[in-house]
Write a structure and sequence with these properties.
L1 transposable element trimerization domain-containing protein, single chain, disordered N terminus
Length: about 110
């Protein structure tokens, strides 16, 4: 087994000892204990204690941006649905206009 594989196998034991994401508290004490348990794996992936808070803040910012984008998508979807309704109404009006025109033409020809 390679050096990294051995570490990852050891880290998987640490992961199973830590609570699932839904059960973790967002308190600073729980965050600190979680980072201590998984610090080796985090270091391998480029994390350090100095940039952890920066990464955490960046994730919060991205979460807010994602929520804003989701709201915009919902608004745009509502506008698309509304536009489709308007188009359908216009098609019905066009059909009705043709029918009226045809009746007028027919009536005019009779005269």
């Amino acid at each position: 087994m390679g050096k990294k594989q051995g570490r990852k196998a050891g880290n998987s034991k640490n992961k199973s000892a830590s609570p699932p994401a839904k059960e973790r508290s967002s308190s600073p004490a729980m965050d600190q204990s979680w980072t201590e348990n998984d610090f080796d794996e985090m270091r391998e992936e480029g994390f350090s204690p100095s940039n952890f808070s920066e990464l955490k803040e960046e994730l919060r910012t991205q979460r807010k941006e994602t929520k804003n984008l989701e709201k915009k998508v919902e608004e745009l979807m509502a506008r698309v649905i509304n536009a489709e309704k308007v188009i359908n109404e216009m098609k019905e009006m066009k059909t009705m206009t043709r029918e009226i025109r045809d009746k007028c033409t027919s009536f005019s020809n009779r005269l």
